[in-house]
Every structure is written in structure tokens, then in C-alpha cells.
Amino acid sequence: MVEKKRIEWLDIAKAISIVLVVLGHSGHPFLDVYLGWFRMPLFFFLSGILFKPVMFKSFGVWAGRKTYRMMVPYFVYGTAIFAVFNLENLNMLPDHLYNLLYGGSGLQGPYGVFWFITVLLLTQILLGLMSNLYKWLQIIIVAVLFVAGHSEFIIAYDWPWNANVVMIAVFYYSLGYYGSGIIKKYHDSFLLAASSTVFAAVVIILYANGYMDYYLNLKMSSYNHFILDIIVPLLFFMPVIYISSIIAKFPVKEVFKVFGQYSIVIMYLHLPVNIFFRTVLEYDVTSFEFTVLGVMIPVITGYIFSLTKPTRLLFLGQK
Q1: Among 197, 264, 261, residue whose Cα is nearest residue 22
Q2: How distant, in Å, are the alpha carbons of 84, 124, 126, 174 from that of 137?
């Protein structure tokens, strides 16, 4: 069987996205504000580009396999991280496993990004189920969920697995899915990227000068305007994709492709790695060091995990 050729610019865009996630968590207040506007929506958007419709008759098997591949690493990482930071309190493991099972915004500290895994899984399953419907009906459902997801009634409740965030995430994910043909055609359009960059700069200037109140934090269900939540994140998508298409023309692309290959490992480990340096080793890393350590150590760890079948299954969700 011939292996399907990967889309280089898409792999690079995912690599840039995960680096931006790490950079945003590095503690720099300026970066955290502006990167927060689009870094997680961008991840859902890029993932949606590769989504394929699922036939209803095979939906159960498809959803089961996807859940298995994503949730095994979720609990393995969650347990391993707990053991590293709680060697003297392993009796608390049952409570921790319950917290992992419930998931959502309650997972903090070294588990601060675990919400993304459950939201991504539920988003994919939801769109997989919806893919059997007429496309116009799918779009209506996505729009209704997006608007309803911004209601105080939905936001106020602490949902297991951050399930309420799926109502927002499915918009960005489906946007990548529905627009995949256009995105693949115009991914290297300088005009589109430049125009988007100009408007993004205008938004930043308006915010910096106090003319616009905007924030977006999917994990904490913190979003204040569904119109701006459509416009603002999208302004940053095409510039990132265009930069990725440029990088794909140079040898440095191989480095980004490796980052993209182990993006999930980076997602899981960048916070624990830096918390370990700051608390256990008592070394106060800078934002730059946080980013470098948060990318390089997980990439090396991910490569080690890829060497054996058991670790590929447990930590990478691969056969």
C-alpha cells in the first residue's frame, strides 16, 4: 500500500501552532494576551482541514478507535506526570484519576492543556456524526451551537471534559473542514495573507489603545463576543499558513516537520517540563528558555517513545 503523501505546509503550520502554544504559556503577559486570541482556534482549524466524512454504518467503530487512540495517552501521561510530582503522595492517585476522568477546566498546573484532548475528541466525534446530514443542515447546527455556546447559562456550568467548549471549537474545526479546498488552493497567496495581516494589526492597535475589549480563553470558557470570536481568530490563520508555505520551500522545514510530528507530546509535556525546572530544580526559566525546553525535551522524549511498539501505543496513540 502506498503511503499517502503528507501536506508539508500543513505539518509546518501545526508545528508553528504548538510552538505558539508553548510560547503563550511561558509567562510573558504581552504574548499570552495576543496569542490567546488565536492559538487554540488555529489548532482546531488546522485539524479540521484533514477531516474526512464518516459513514453512519461505520461511525461506532471509527469513534471507538479514535477514542482509544486519544484517551490511552491522556491517562498514561496524566498518571505519569502525577507520579513524578507526587512520589510521596501516591495514595492520592485514585482522586487524581477521578479528576482526569472528569477533566475540563479543573485540571490545572502540569495538566493545564489536557482539556484540549477531550475537546478535540468530542469535536471530531460530533462532526463525524453530523457528516451524515445534508451540508446545509450541518452548517446550521454548527452556527446554532456556536451562538448558544456563548450564553451565560452554558458558560456558568463546569462541564466534564469541557464539553461546552465543543460548541465553540466545532466552528473552527468545521471551518477548516468546509474550507479545506479553498485553503489548499490559496495557502500560498501573499495577497490574502498580507490583507489578513493588515486587519490583524488594526485589531491589535485598537486593543492596545483601549478601543476594543476582547479576550478568548477556550479552556476557561472565557469569551465575550461571538461576532469577534468569528472575525479576530480568523485574521491570524492565513498569515500563519502563508509563513508555513514559505518555510516548506527551505531545508529548515525538516525541523518544523519534526515539531509537528511530536506536537501532541509537546502539548502534554511542555508545562510539566517547565514546572519541574521551576519547582523541583528551583530554576526560574525565562520565557525563551521555557519555550526551548518546552519544545526540545518533549521532541526528544517523543522520539524515544516512537522506538518501541508499547511506548508508541501508550504515549503516541499509534500502532
Answers
A1: 264
A2: 47, 17, 14, 13
216: which strand partners? Answer: 223
Domain boundaries, given as residue ranges, for the chain: 8-316
Q: Position of cell 472565557? A: 222
Q: What are phi and psi of 216, to 5 degrees?
A: -150, 110
Q: Do residues 55 and 185 touch, judged by C-beta distance below 8 A?
A: no
Q: At what angle are helices 8-24 and 228-247 packed, to 10 degrees?
A: 120
One pLDDT digit (tens) per residue for the chain, 319 residues:
334 567 899 999 999 999 999 998 887 777 788 898 999 999 999 999 999 999 888 999 999 999 999 999 999 999 999 999 887 788 888 899 999 999 988 888 999 999 999 999 999 999 999 998 999 999 999 999 999 999 988 988 889 999 999 999 999 999 999 999 999 999 999 999 999 999 999 999 999 999 988 889 898 888 878 899 999 999 999 999 999 999 999 999 999 999 988 999 999 999 999 999 988 888 888 888 999 999 999 999 999 999 999 999 999 988 7
- Helix H or strand E encompassing 65: helix 59-85
Q: Which helix (H) or strand (E) holds 221?
A: none
CA distances (Å), 89 to each of 72, 83, 84, 267, in order? 23, 8, 10, 25
pTM of the model: 0.94
Residue 71: exposed, middle, or buried by beta-carbon count in 10 A (0-12, 13-18, 19+)?
middle
- Cβ-proximal residues to 75 (8 Å cutoff; 6+ apart), any chain: 97, 100
- Angstrom distance (rounded) from CA 177 to CA 139: 11
Angle (deg, nearest 10), helices 39-49 and 166-178: 50
Partners of 217 in beta bridges: 222
CB atoms within 10 A of CB 263: 23
